[in-house]
Amino acid sequence: MARVFLHVGGHKTGTSYLQAMFHANAALLARHGIHYPDIGPNNAHHALAAPWISTPDIPDAFFGPAGRKGLWDRLIAQYADMPGTVFLSAENFTRVRPQRVDMAQLAARLRAFGEVRVVYTMRQQVELLQSLWMQVAKTRPAPNLRKYVKAGLSDRRGGGVPIDHSNVYTALLEGFRPEEIRLVDYASMKNSEGGIVGTFLRLMDSDLKADALAPLKSQENANISPDPIEFFVATEIMNREAPPPGDLIETIRCAIRPGDAPAATLLSRSEHSKLRRRFVNSNNSLVERVQPVQPGFVFDPGSVPPDLFFRDDLTTAHWTRVAAALYSRNVTATSAPRPLIRRILDRYQGVSGSS
Q1: Which of 83, 112, 144, 263 has its Cβ near the most Cβ atoms within 10 Å?
Q2: CA 220, CA 243: separation in Å to the nearest integer?
Q3: Are 208 and 146 in contact (CB under 8 A)?
Q4: How much is the pTM?
Q5: Where are the alpha helices (DSSP H) in the chain?
Q6: Per-10-residue mean pLDDT for the chain, 355 residues long?
């Protein structure tokens, strides 16, 4: 009987890259006892959360005559009695809005397998919240950044995604035993041997090494976030009405921070400090809860780089250089430099200051 590993996210912790890598290398993984089911309509397993949450990007016809439950029935019938490990990955299992997954019911379905493990990867909130905002802005009109951060501080989530990992752990315990849950620090995972892929192969006790897997032919499926400051400026120039194109972001990067620039955040200094303080007690409490069943578990917030570039480090000079660069490269159509510079400086007013 197969054991099952369910990777429930979290969001923005390399999930898209991991899913794309496992999907592309499914045949190799299967030869080494790891089964990564291709259930469609993409290379992950988001459709498995459909019995509990809405899936507007997946039509009802996809699930067939048996409906959303039927997808689970087919998966269990095909894989539960096989030898080896079944690996499922979908970050929407931990969403909290507009609906959330019933963890007790989810656990009951997974009991069809011989052994159950749930893996949740955690990212520090200052990085997570800005990455969630950027993900939204990459696909549709960007929300007001200040309001988004303020809501994250008060509601402990970014949109429908929880950013308080202690709450996620509590929800998982509604269906799973503590020893069935494994929490992984995203920063530690990235810096470990083989990175994200290597970490999950080790979790499943595989003899495969990460470098044995074929690399992705294209990074499009990896969902890599662009530099936050350049991306933020680009969304402002676009009036937050549409995702900014790549040539606009690159032109802004060359104008604002050419060369080997220090790390940046789209948060202001005040927002960054508030987010770190807001979750320190919750994060520490979570570590204390988890360590008895996962000895050695840490979730280190790390230190703030002394040269970190904040949103309120943007000056009028930066925005003027952006306007000049865009005009000279004709990235944004205009009949004369003055209207373009005026437009960009107008966007600068009120968006670069601290909260």
Answers
A1: 112
A2: 16
A3: no
A4: 0.91
A5: 15-24, 26-31, 67-79, 103-110, 125-139, 145-155, 165-172, 186-190, 195-203, 228-237, 246-256, 269-290, 316-329, 337-348
A6: 96 95 98 96 94 90 91 96 97 95 98 96 96 93 94 96 98 98 96 97 97 85 76 88 88 86 92 96 97 94 92 89 79 46 61 50
